[in-house]
Model the fold of this input.
Amino acid sequence: MRNKSKSDSSLKIDINYVARLANLPLSDEEKKTFEKQLKEVLNYFSNLNEVNTKTVEPIGHITGLVDVVREDKTAPSISQEDALVNAPKTHNGFFEVEAIFEEE
Amino acid sequence: MIKLDDLTIKTAGELLSQKQIEAQELTKYFLDRAQKLNKKLNCYITICAENALKEAKRVDEIIAAGQKISPLAGIPIALKDLFTTKGIQTTAGSKVLENYVPVYDATVVSRLKDNLSIIIGKTNQDAWGHGASGENSDFGPTLNPYDFKRVPGGSSSGSAAAVASGTCLAATGTDTGGSIRQPSSFCNLVGLKPTYGRVSRYGIIAMASSLDSIGHITKTVYDNALILNVTAGLDDFDSTASPNPVDDYTKDLEKGVKGLKVGLPREYFDELDSDIKELMLSTVKTLERLGAQVIDVSLPHTNYGVATYYIVQTSEVSSNLARYDGIRFGNRREKFGAEAKRRIILGTYTLSAGYYDAYYLKAMKVRRLIRDDFITAFKKVDILICPISPTLPFKLGEKISDPLQMYLSDIFTVNPSLAGVPSLAIPCGFINNLPVGMQIIGPYFSEKLLYQVGYAYEQDTKWYERRPKV
Done:
């Protein structure tokens, strides 16, 4: 089942870069384990290189539904109070978030 | 004296409508059993005793008033904890959502409630649906009722164990790459992965949106069809739900398999474990004896399924799990368990600049070829019969430290998922006292046909009568 790739060494995840993209805090130990495990998985993925897909279009919706639209009208939805009920921090009926921009 | 252990939805419904038992009595029996067996099996994350008894009382009042009721009225069911339930904690099996109490119901949940089903609890599962053993739950593993040392399968681990141990009469599940079929197979149950879009995904915590299929697990085929009658159909809240008409899936169940063309895809049998293969071939013999015609077919891209699936699925997982930021609900991202983190990293990588074409786009092309394999096969045959798991239910801890080996457990279930076709898991016997299932796969929206075939086989073999000793 395991396919050995010719370019094993190139199949390496830059774990710090990817973790930053995913906004995912990882411990050093996790980084080490995942790096090894994911390298194995990526090597396994390389068996798709055997499949000639030059003339194949990527698949869209699997049973072929297209352009599903509905009338643009308002309807009752959850209340502001309900929408905030699970939020750890709220302020005057809004979600409270960490500041993104610093004041000069 | 009625023996409640052996009840099905059908027989329980008859007792309720003939007023031989009250919904409250039935609910109390299943709640007690759930509370008792949960200590052994860990199949529930939440048991909703108070709510369930309140609802059961309401059902009794409706029955007493002589109103016509649904076949699911008063039936004790469980919901996988990926199903959003208003006012009931919904964790997805993850500590990220350990304190999340939703303010709305998933469409499937509203439909089951409208039919007066009694929700007795939320079942344990691999966190976010990631796993084939139940061991990735942040709330501890679930045990297989047929052998406490073994896994019940996953990710709908708790749903399968809950039904098999007789703590409810049905449980919902989600199947992205086998998460209903494989636990059904490991626990001697009937499990449906419907056609993609047959059942609304609204309110089901998303794993991989182009693959997630919403189904359920029961003891019998008839019970399974009863539930699809309620859950299938269009939904304004899910634009991928199909407008295809919904059948009465219990109708014509006795039609049989005479003259039906049954395909055996050789790629699924070539390297199959010899004991499982022998059992599979004997089930095929049974279908032949019942009048089906067996034909050898090929699904040539089968071996690319696992790689394709784990690219598409992890890519979509990384995107779907991006919403958990601890701002609007749930905990912060450090609470994700190891498997979720692994999949987020993998999926983020395969979608990242410079790799998207090589992985995600490539996989979506191979996915088309895999789907075309099925379409071509269904020009030749009516249904396909395949194994579900390459192994018997394995021991707890056996595969947990090797993710790739765990992913390869999905080899027989991922291809129908990628193709979006429906697949019904049916018990087909025991090896070393451990349950084995097979899948009946059909063309898009052929759920009715799958039930007919499953029913014919089930009535001849009655494997569902062999309950575990718990």
Summary: Chain B has 14 helices and eleven strands. Chain B touches chain A through 61 residues (CB under 8 Å). Residues 4-260+388-465 of chain B form a domain with the Amidase signature (AS) enzymes fold (CATH 3.90.1300.10). The two ends of chain B are 21 Å apart (CA to CA).
